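Quick one, T. Sequence first:
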Amino acid sequence: MNDIRITPALDQIRNLSIAAGSSVPEVPSEGIDFGSMLKQAINDVNTKQEISGKMKAAFESGDKTMNLAEVMVASQKADVSFKAMTQVRNKLVEAYKDVMNMPM
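C-alpha cells:
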C-alpha cells in the first residue's frame, strides 16, 4: 500500500496560494474544522466572482478607471477558483461514494 504524505502537499498548496495572492487560513493547534474551512473557501470563491462581475460591469459601462488587463485577470482568478472548488467537490463526492460502498 502506498504511504501518502499529505503535509508536504499542503505546504506546497499554501505556498502557491500565497504566491497567487490568496489568503491561507491558519490551522489551529487543536486541529482543522473542515466545515468552517470549506465555508471560508466557498466564500472566497464567491467574493472573487462578485469582484469580477463588478469590474466587468464597470468596464462595460465605460468607467475610465477600469483597466482591461485588470478586469481580465480578475475574471481569470474567479474562473480558476471556481473550477478548483468544483474539482474539490467532485473528489469529496467520489470519496463519499467510496466510503459508502465499503463492506462492513
